[in-house]
Amino acid sequence: MNNVRFSVNVPIYNAEKFLRECIDSILNQSFADFELNLVNDGSKDSSGAICDEYAKKDSRVKVYHNENRGSFATRVFAVEHSNGEYCVFCDSDDFYDPQYLERANELLNEEKCDVLLFYQEAVVDGVRKKATPHWREKRIFEGEGKKEFYTAMMTSSDFNTLNIKVAKTELYKNDTLDSRKYSFVKNGDDFLQSLYPIFNAEKIVFVPECYYNYRIHSESLTHKIDLNIYNSIFAVRSVIWENYLDGTDILGEDTKRVFAMRSARSALNIVKLVAQQDGLSDEKKIEIFRKIHDHSFYREFIEPNLVKSDLEKKWQFIYDLFSRHSYKILLSTVRVFGKIKK
């Protein structure tokens, strides 16, 4: 039974530098009917002690100390221990505007929706960077109209993060996706956890307002370049296809073809990223290219279903080189045209 309006969930790993600002921004909300779940994922710094300090001062704070399992499993754990009607999330180096929960509560009362979405803005070296929302007016998605939102979610990165979503806790708890199976996912794990609530919501509302501040800094997990990112991206896309898109017309009459093109674009962007790494030998780059090409999702979904002409011409050339295993020519091409744009 829900006994608070919101469960605010914060997964924490070695976050001592910014953790106090994060927690303060939540506890200082103008709306007070919430619990704050701080889940310490085996931090080796003083993060755990900071969490315990806040728990002693504020009864809304609940602290859990776990062995390190990664952000995906940590968020799942937080949901399992959530008592709020709705779940919201905050990364431990980010922070809320003071009126976030109050505004969310107002909109939930007005719209009676299952999922409410805002947008976020980045904070770089303490300076907030103005962002443009996906839509400039409030949008409501119900019934067949939800396909428009699903298309936007699949073709844009604007809705990837959990941190701009307010969703009914029961939707998160009903998701049976095994977090242990996807513990290796380091990029897109929060998008993976967004899928069940979004696709099972009866009513989705987007509001072009920003109350979430996403910090970009040298220690940020999502700021670092992971050369094995393809494993995460392919795993997430496999779940999307198998669980939510296969057999539907969500992306149009030929959803499989469109999703194959989008997936190919993601794969080729990773290829470009690897090719542009100055500190990596050509031999290592080619080794990664081979692993991408040999990945089951690439071989069994992208290659059989991609129509090459669906790609922009600049990517068709790269795709030809990659699919023919002409990796040395591909590397030379990226060096010459190092500013291939997405």
Summary of the model, kept short:
This protein is of the alpha/beta class and 342 residues long. 44% of the residues lie in helices and 19% in strands. The protein has 13 helices and ten strands.
* CATH fold type of the largest domain: Spore Coat Polysaccharide Biosynthesis Protein SpsA, Chain A
**What is the level-2 CATH architecture name of the largest domain?**
Alpha-Beta Complex
Q: In percent terms, what proportion of residues is strand?
A: 15-25%
Structural class per helix/strand content? alpha/beta
Report the major sheet: 10 strands, mixed
What is the fourth-level CATH superfamily of the largest domain?
Answer: Spore Coat Polysaccharide Biosynthesis Protein SpsA, Chain A
Task: Please explain how this structure is put together.
It is a single chain. With 342 residues, this protein is an alpha/beta fold. It is 44% helix and 19% strand. It contains 13 helices and 10 strands. The chain has helices at residues 19-27, 47-57, 71-80, 100-111, 146-155, 169-173, 189-200, 229-245, 255-275, 282-294, 296-305, 313-323, 327-336, and strands at 4-12, 34-41, 61-66, 84-89, 95-96, 115-124, 127-129, 139-142, 165-168, 203-216. Strand 6 and strand 7 form a beta hairpin. Helix 8 (229-245) packs antiparallel against helix 9. The longest helix is centred in the C-terminal third of the chain and has 21 residues, at 255-275. The termini are far apart.
